[in-house]
Amino acid sequence: MPIVKYPRATEPLWHEWDKKAQKCGLRHTVYAVNGDYYTGEWLDNLKHGKGTQVWTHARAIYSGDWKFGKRDGYGSYSILDPVTKEYKKVYTGWWKNDTKCGYGVTFYPGVERYEGEWSSGLRSGWGRMYYQDGSVYEGQWLKDRPGGQGMLRLPNENRYEGGWKDGKKHGPGKFFYLDKGQLFEGTWAADIPKCGILIDFGRAKAPAPPQYPIPKV
Prior knowledge:
It is found in: Cytoplasmic vesicle, Secretory vesicle, Acrosome. The chain is mainly beta.
């Protein structure tokens, strides 16, 4: 009588099918014990290719590219809005080694958003930040703060153009007081102007110029 071998109790058939599907790169859904699940492509039992990961307790979703088990390539990360009960995108862009890296857009609470480059999950490189009060910063970033050369435009259209360090005005720069028709050109240190000159600049078209013009040197 031939001997029939059955799968071991610790290795059910569905588990064997899961591993085969993963190794073959097929789209497949796998659930974790905590309720999280992934639907997408696999390679050698790792998420690889296109896929969607759902974190049920964190109420978050990532949909995009994977490489050997990590988010890598282009994808979007969304979280559940407690008010609307709908998922809204928090970040859309490029990833590397499971962190934001490359160009991407991040949406913060309210109307704030950042469009630009990332490195190791931090804003680094060129980028534009829209703030809650209506201000806009456009320029270089370093370790999640303005650093290098950039321009800050205020809600009243006044603006600063020049150097930045650790998120503060630092180094040579110009501040355009367009509401008064004046220009200050000088040097800043940690957001404080240390020295420079103040001249009239477009005074005739300014909405609220000072009573007296600045005497010419």
